[in-house]
Structures are given as structure tokens and as C-alpha cells.
Amino acid sequence: MNQPTVPPPLPSTPQIPASTKQCKKCRSVIDKRATKCPHCRSTQGFFRKTGKVLGITFLIFVGINILGQLAKNAKDPTTQPASDAEPTTVVEEDKTADLIIRELSSHRKGSRKWRNILVKADITREELIELAQEMHKRDSQTSFNFFNDDSQFKNYLQWEKYYPNKYYPFPEEWLKKHNLGMLNRMGPVSDNRWELLSWDGAFVLAVID
After folding, report:
1. CB of 30 within 8 A of CB of 43?
2. Which of 173, 183, 115, 181 is nearest to 147 (CA)?
3. I want to staple 206 with a disulfide (CB 3.0 to 4.6 A). Which of 1, 158, 159, 196 is the partner?
4. For the CA atoms of 167, 172, 178, 182, what is the dihedral angle to 10 degrees?
5. Which residue, among 183, 191, 90, 204, has the nearest Cα to 137 in the 3D structure?
6. Can you tell me the mean pLDDT for 21-47?
């Protein structure tokens, strides 16, 4: 009759010398008095716990100081915004922006620069004067023509450039209808009087400067 097999005895746990201990992190055997593992550099025993406690204590201390400072500022009138502070400057909207469709061209005639502006078809006389004032403010040494149609502008520009060449006819009827005004300096340079005139200069719509 076969005898039952008896399992071999389990190996005994190696005894750690009394002068050593196991690292709490890497389980290496280290000197019992060591405060830091020479293998994984982790803090041991009392110092490990003390480090955590000190860290938490420091965070609580910082938090209390921040809350105290906030409470102090809330009570201090010198940290509050002054009720009579200067109001925020409001930039005035450019009311002439919607009067202009586009700039047709610019050219020189003699020593003077001219800019040709296409404006909306239904512009009023008051709006035209306001636009002329604004354009003169932005470009005070330039003359302007204001048109509400550009269908024959190219013919006008050729006539202006090549006058008195008869090959380029003067588009008089178109100018009468669609050249709403010209802003030009009148009189001697010393006078420096800028006027908004009718297309042919026959009458003054407004004195601009």
C-alpha cells in the first residue's frame, strides 16, 4: 500500500539582523538608524511622516494668510475703486463712413493732388458738407471731387489728363448731374481758404476752412 506524499516544509523567512531594517518603499535591507534609503532615496520612519505633516502644515499656514489678506483688503477703503474715477473715454463713431462707397482714383493736376470719391447716390447736401469737412481734416492739403455715379468717370479722367485734346470730349452733362461738388483751395496760398464748390465753381456750397 502506497504511503501518502508529504509536502516539503516551507522555507523559513530569513531573519533580518537587529541592527538593520527594511526600506518602506523598495524593501531593501538598510541600517536601522538610516533616515533615507541609500538605494531608492526615500525618507524612512519618523522623518517620512514628519515631512508629510510639515508639508500639510505649511499649506494650511499659507492658506490662512491668503484668506486673512483678502479679508483685510475688503475692509480697507484705500483698496476699493474710487467712485469719482475718470469716466472711460468713448470714441466717437465716424458718421461719414457710410457715406463713401469707394475712392475712384487720385491724380495730380499741376502742383495739386486730387482725390475722386464715389459717394452714395442719395447723399444730402448737409451730409456732403459734413463729409467734405471730415476729408479735409484727414488730408488737409488735397483737393477732392465727390461723385454719386461712376459710369463716365473714366471719360472725365481722360479729358482732365489730356485737355485740350479734342479727341477726349468733355462729359459736361454727366458732370452737371453727378459731380456733386469739389473741395478746393481758393485765392492765394497765403489766404488758404478751402471751399466746397459746385462742379463748375460757379457757387460756394460751404466754406470748409
Report:
1. no
2. 181
3. 196
4. 90
5. 183
6. 72
Q: How far is CA 198 from CA 27, 137, 147, 156, in A?
A: 102, 20, 12, 16
pTM of the entire structure? Answer: 0.55
- Which residue in the block uniquely carries the three cell numbers 511622516? 49
At residue 90, the pLDDT reads 52
Q: Please write the tens of the pLDDT for every residue from 164-193.
A: 898 999 999 999 999 999 999 886 655 678
The three three-digit cell numbers of residue 74, written as one number:
475688503
CA 199/CA 188 separation, integer angstroms: 21
- On the question of pLDDT at 106 being above 90, the answer is yes
Residue type, 209: D
What distance in Å separates the CA atoms of residue 27 and residue 94, rounded to the nearest whole number?
78
